[in-house]
User: What shape does this take?
Amino acid sequence: MEKILSKPESLKDSVLSYCPGCGHGIIHRLVAECVDELNLREKTIAVAPVGCAVFAYDYFNFDTTEAPHGRPPAVATGIKRTNPDKFVFTYQGDGDIAAIGMAETIHAANRGENITIIFVNNANYGMTGGQMAPTTLIGQVTETTPFGRDPKREGYPIHLCELLATLEGTTYLERVSIYNPQNIIKAKKAIKKAFQCQLDGKGFSLVEVISNCPVDWGMTPLDSIKWTEETFIKTFPLGVIKDKTNV
Amino acid sequence: MKKLIKGNIALCEGAIAAGLHAYFGYPITPQNEIPAYMSKKMVELKRVFVQAESEIAAANMVLGAAVTGKRAMTSSSSPGISLKQEAISYMAGLQLPSLIVNVQRGGPGLGNISGSQSDYFQAVKGGGHGDYRLIVLSPNSAQEMYEFAYDSFDLAEKYRSPVMILTDGIIGQMMEPVEFNKSEKKDFNDKNWVLTGCKGRQPRSVQSLLMKDGVLEKHNINLQEKYKIIAKNEVKYETFMTDDAEIIITAYGISSRIAKSAIKLARKEGIKAGLLRPKTLWPFPSQIIDSLAKKGTKFLSVELSHGQMIEDVKLAVNGKAPVEFLGKAGGGIVTEQEILVKIKEMAK
Amino acid sequence: MYDEIIIAGFGGQGVLLAGTLIAQAAIEQGLHTTWFPSYGAEMRGGTANSTVIVSDDEIGSPIAFNPNALIALNEPSLNKFMPRMTESSVIIANSSIIPQNKEYRIKLYFVPVTDIADKEIKNVKTANLVAVGALIKALEINCANPRRRSAGKEGDICELEDAKVLTLQSALSACEKAFSSKPEFVEINKKAIQAGYNFVK
Assistant: This one.
């Protein structure tokens, strides 16, 4: 019998610590497949965030470093500027990238750092038990918005891709999701394109992956997928936000 | 012939000669000469210079460069150093060699831009969260700014630890003749922990998050063992006329120079005064202070603060001799006459 | 010897450069020296100053505790630092813009450095170095430093051979160092120093 599908070399054999039904596992796999397919594993230095993906270095089978909360774009800047021949990406959540690390994100993007960011948006702080994130939807109940997110009190969900698109330094920005196979394929294509953008020296690329967090959302995995499709992506429409890779 | 140069620039030259690969900084007085000089020199040398969006980002860029084994530094002044503490704690936990320079100014808060020595506690007692130490060097001349910066990277790499140069606005801003007597470093030892991409080896991860049972405890024990070795091997100090001294002034950085002038004046008046100047604030020269604490000796800690290093002097003296204090903070500088008056008072 | 020299004036009058030139002259003579500027917000709008200490022994503070020489390139600078000067201090006042008809508690050397630079050197920007030349001469004939005085008698003329004062020669060679990247300025600045030196009698 011929083996036609195997685990990517860029994933270790370890068991993921993510909750049942969480999207991180799929996104990890997509990232690992893209690293393998572009033959980048041996020149990759990845930056893990603080948040659910903090243990990324236990799962990815390439060099990884930790970064303080929100600082991966600055850490990646330090790595890439001193090692322009390496492949450098960060893997960050919504709180990390768009709340505590917003300054680092915007300025790395504005400098056009030749790095890639995989931004997993699941509309809450997963690791700490489901508090409001900068991307939490209006009306969404979280641990710290028990009455639902009220714009008068908590402001509005931040659309990071759209925000970054206004900066001249950014090259490729796309929002994808993983709630069904069709979108998973699209997500992989986007990640690969973002990686290629860096390999071609074209500058800052970011892929926002709309993902689900069933446990902290208080839903079954199936319901979380349904909510992603019917509600979440209505606030965060999928698609290419900016593409200057052919310019 | 020696070159007339600012302390801040001498420091840049020392770091560059030591093979500095990347400088990340942010403007704040009185250290602005450092990023300004680096922005030209590093680019000319085809090395890395980035003006970061914040002190926080600058320190984390250093972390990123350090994780790949590159010699990297950042510099700032007191309020900026407070912001860098996050990355400094991480670098201590991740065991990353790097150089952080604090050209101290007056505090607390925004304070003012005059030279000060009020960040001693922050530098030697932690600064950020967690149980860690920095190797803290304290130059007292433009020449030492050059030399200490040059030596700092070897120290940092030897012990896989961030090194801080704790200086002040006066040493940083003044010009003095400096002899550039160090050779350009080019060969560095291979490091078996750096991230370079996993070609030909198992992947590495650099992390301070250690959640498994007992692992963090073990990590902390290892750090403490390392600090013990540093404390044993790396203490540096200068003594001046301490052999027969009955009054020993302890002072570092700019204060030590003024103290030395005062000691010379005191000696002219027949008072046996001497100076113990720590060149390393951590590890602190406790042993030599202990050995100087003979019967009848008195100590005087002179600082541009309201009494910080004096606590370490007292710990070293351990009750064997009285320890007095003279200092001011927030812009004033202790004069040699003020020190002399204090010495005379203590000699009575 | 131990000279604490303050050079002060408007920003743009070259007070920092004049200070570094004196410090460089000290290096030429193998003396210890420090130079310390006013910096940061202090410089904005008001008067700028730099302090040079020249000594044959190690120098403690680079900040002047007991200044014994002052170059005041404008009146606000003179007013600012005058209270710190003693009767034995040497003060060069730029009489091109500082009125001479006021009462001063200390005898000043009035030197029209701006006019000399403008008319004699044909470059008004060299006024700072005219003042440096004047200061060197004034220090030579004054033995202004109280510590140095305490060794000799009141009014003694310093011996030039024992290198206990900055010499004209070392200031001139400092000029070559200071302007090594702009050789076209070496001669004109040397001329300025010489002119200031010659003016003081």
